[in-house]
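Thread: UDP-N-acetyl-D-mannosaminuronic acid dehydrogenase, structure

OP (GT): Posting the sequence first so everyone is looking at the same thing. Length is 412 residues per the record. Can we get the structure tokens written out before standup tomorrow? I want them in the notebook alongside the other entries.
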Amino acid sequence: MCEVDVCVVGLGYIGLPTSLVLATNGSKVHGVDVADSVTSRLQAGLATFEEPGLQDALDAAIGTDNLTVSDRTVPASTYIIAVPTPIGSDKSPDTSYIQAAAVQIAGHIQPGGLVILESTSPVGTTEFVAKTIYSLRPDLDSGDLAFAHCPERVIPGSMLREITVNDRIVGGLNPQDAARAATLYRTFCTGEVHLTDARTAEITKLAENSFRDVNIAFANELSMVAEGLGIDPWEVISLANKHPRVNILQPGPGVGGHCIAVDPWFLISSAPNETKLIKAARIVNDFKPSFVSEKIKRELESSDGTSVAILGLAFKANVDDLRGSPSVEIVEELASSRPDLLIRVVEPFITDLPSNFRQYSNIRLDSLEACLENEELIVLLVDHDLFKKVDMSLLATKRIIDTRGMWRELNV
């Protein structure tokens, strides 16, 4: 009998909240992460990233004595894989972290064990995990273990709530595996749990984020067309949305994060000849940061500007998550192409600039107050609540590039 009910491999943006919810709902949980910076902070009782309610949830989990953390996988009844699934420079899926997690699990899992893959993955990855573990454990027979895919469906800023209230999809390698995994999720999930096969679960998650990416791409492309014609894109979208069957999204500086900007490539890699629309959307959204960068450069050249204030680095509002952020890409492009340009960045959710900025001497993390006082050109890239509260009179004499349409709505 294992002392640990659930061993969660990967304590990042999905693995940590999942561990906390499981622990506070009665499961004995052991969390594993290879990063010393993560395990040491959690062992000290400190949350590793900014998320509403996360520190309170960590305190509650610690209070139950149901949570332990280390850098080593341990014997458990159930394993949840929640590691990154990035894409390479050629946009191909990188499942090496999943493979490494499977190898770790293989050394400890016993007959009757359950492995759940939560990481968003290319179609067929759950089967790959099963094959990897069985290949390393010749003492196990096919069917001794259960495997399922249960993709996360949360958004930064509301993770702890959405982990519990959103419907979940559980896809097993067979119906019995799906049923076993569903039993675990029903211990904390108040949303409906839908059972299917693993491949259907995998492609469903990819379809969800590809759908969102395509819709965002339409808004971004429309905004570029409108601006090129000298037309306010936000007015166009507002008026078009008066149609009862039209709901165009709001444009932005691009698409970031680890999901929407990544997951469509998993579908594209699986069926390159059948995903022309999905690929076109990715190209549009990947191009938008360059479009914004060129717009900033033109504005600087028109006034011989030598400095600029950039408001926001996160990939979305009110989080500290910089993964895949178009804002980061824009700042890097400006810094490398204009080494003479002083770039003052305001990001209220971080205390230090990301490490990839260290090669540039012309990027400075600054306060909103200093930038509004000293800079002539203000570029809004992220619609943080802090920026919504700016005194509009302070912007009256500024030149503004608002990629979110936020200040336009405030009659700036």
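GT: Both are above now. Quick notes for whoever picks this up: The domain at 4-191 is CATH 3.40.50.720 (Rossmann fold). The chain has a mean pLDDT of 95.
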